[in-house]
Design goal:
Layout: H1 19-26, H2 30-38, E1 55-62, E2 64-65, E3 71-72, E4 76-77, E5 79-81, E6 88-92, E7 98-99, E8 107-115, H3 118-131, E9 133-135, H4 141-147, H5 151-154, H6 176-197, H7 208-213
Antiparallel strand pairs: 1-8, 2-3, 4-7, 5-9, 6-8
Amino acid sequence: MKTVIIISVRIKSRIQIGHTATEMLTRVDLVREQIRLAAGEPLSMTQADVRLDGWSMMCRVQAEDPANRFMPSPGHLRRVRLPDGPEVRVDTYVYCQSDIPPAYDPIIGKVTTWAPDRDLCVNRMRRALEDFIAVGTPNNLPFLLRIFQSPEFMSGRYTTDFLSHPIQEELPPETMMTRRDLAVAAAALYILRREALNPQLPDRIATGWHRDSRRLPQ
């Protein structure tokens, strides 16, 4: 008696979020090919034409707070600077003075890099993340940079439980100047967060002149 096994395969017709890494490896515009298919045209290539070359990786820059269980933190971006350079790709919709909406995935952008080997690809990504600036709402850029400073990740010797334990980082030797700078940065961050939670109102708002000026005429 023969046993017949039927396997049902569901093919998603939408472009996946990691398609940029695939495009960097294959140099195939997947979005263009999808539009061609939707228009009734055939693929512009065959499977034999697809070649994988080099290394590629992608990082999702998210408006989320790693210190608060990666809680989404949509808000207003006061300053934005996007990275650039050879084989560095940034897919984003943000700009200076733009908003991260609360209704959808709080993604700021995707950074994708390519290189002939892994070490160069990792170095390009780390440099791109260092150049990426998004000021105005908590985001995971510092967390991503910590990963790229981890000897475990840099060596490629990590497993799926990599983030289940504290990240070991290779940091420069600590000096008195470093401690001073860290203390100043911590104090400035504390003041900024305190003002964000307890905004200071101008003294003029509490005056009678200000209240009377905002009353509707009788």
